[in-house]
Structures are given as C-alpha cells and as structure tokens.
Automatic annotation (TrEMBL):
PANTHER family in alphabetical order: BLR5614 PROTEIN-RELATED, SLL1049 PROTEIN
Domain Transglutaminase-like: 158-222
Listed InterPro entries: Bac_transglu_N (IPR013589), Papain-like_cys_pep_sf (IPR038765), Transglutaminase-like (IPR002931)
Stored Gene3D superfamilies: 3.10.620.30
Protein name: Transglutaminase
Amino acid sequence: MELSISHTTEYTYTAPVDYALQKLRLRPLSSVMQQVGQWEVEIDGGKIEASYRDHYGNHIDLVSIEPGASALTIRASGQVRTLNSTGVLGSVMGRAPLWHFLQPTALTMPGEAIKALPRVASDVSAQVADLHRLSDMILKTLPYMSGGTAVDTPAEDALKGETGVCQDHAQIFVATARLSGLPARYVSGYLRINEQVQQEATHAWAEVFLQGLGWVGFDVSNGVSPDEKYVRIAIGRDARDAAPVEGLRMGDADESLMVSLQVQQ
C-alpha cells in the first residue's frame, strides 16, 4: 500500500522565547514492513542542530528555536510503501539487547491492577493466542476514549481508570508481557484509518519478542496485529522513549500546541 503522510506540529508562545530544544523522532526507517520513499522534515522558526541514531536505532533530529521567536512549526511529510507481514517484524536485533526490554520504567511499572491480568504461557506454540487474548481483555477492561488520561499517565494508573487511549493500551500490554518474561516494547507510528484522512494524533502499539518469530506487533486499541495500514516511526521501552516530539524550553511564556495529521492512500 502506498501511503502519503503529512504531520505538522506547531508551538506558539505568549512571549518571545530565548531558548527551546525539541527532540524529533519523525523519520520512519525502511524495514521488512515498509519502504520509505521521499521524506522531509521542515522547520519554521528554528533549525536542525544535529541528527543521529539513538540507542534504539531511532532517527533523532535535535531542533533549536530561533532566539526571540514566538512560534515553532515542524512539518514531516512523505511517502511510505507498506507491506502486510501480519505483524511480524522478525528477529531484527538493534543496539539495545533483549534484556533491556524486560525492564520496567516509571510509565510501565506494574502494580496490583496489571499483576491481576493473565500471564502468557511458557509454551511457545500458545503465546501468540495468549497475547491476543490479553489484548482483548485490556481493551474490554479499558475501553478506548480520549480525555481520561494524559501523556504522562503511568500504565498502572490508566488501567484503574474508566477509559484510555492507544498509549495506555500499549503500555499496559508491554508491562503485562514483561511479567511473563517476554521482552516487550512500545511503538509509535501512523495508521491509515478507513474513511478518515484527518487525524488528531499519531498512533501507538506494542511489540513482543517471541522465540521462532522475533518481534510481533499487537495493536490493542484496534484488536489486530499491524498490517499494511501501519507505519512505524520509533520504538522504546515506553511512550516517552518513542515520543514523536519532545522538548524543553526556558522562560515564563505560556505554550500552545496544535497538531495536524493526514494519512491517506
């Protein structure tokens, strides 16, 4: 499937800003699941200071704001040809070892609610089915609806709530899989939604490393494994590691954020 993506993030400030630095994970990389064609990241009100690969293999751009600017606009756009691998990325080993993805983080630390979810069988032949059942249970326990959680809500707190979003579902799934001794990680990316070009935010799902298969994806919010409608951007142990945009600034100005995202075939 040929997907065209346009993703704009615009910050506006109530007063000129002397210093701000944004870390961008906005460049998808080619893999067995996708082939990235033309792709650009454009900056208005700032510039790219440095680019590198982080310890997960994600492409990072560090962007500084122009001193005294009152707005910063980041545009990522391009074309990606996707393939349906039924969610199986395979035994692709990056810079981070498997044991790193067994470690909990502040956002994925399991508490009593997560520990009460069912474990995945040690029998390799049963693990895929168990993980799909786990995905179904998480979605039934925490129905998808925005507004119930925030970007910094830990998985345990989210599960105790009434509704959640894809970030919460992915982090709960990751935390639970790790309790069964399975390396698991968070994935940020884009999803083509049928009959909906304009979207409010990027998407998120989880990947678990299984013997014989390698990394396998699970989108809890939609109850499927990622197919040709998905584009991977970044990975990490939690949402913070794989956030498409994060940053810091100095000064007393208030900040407003507007995101515009279109994913279409």
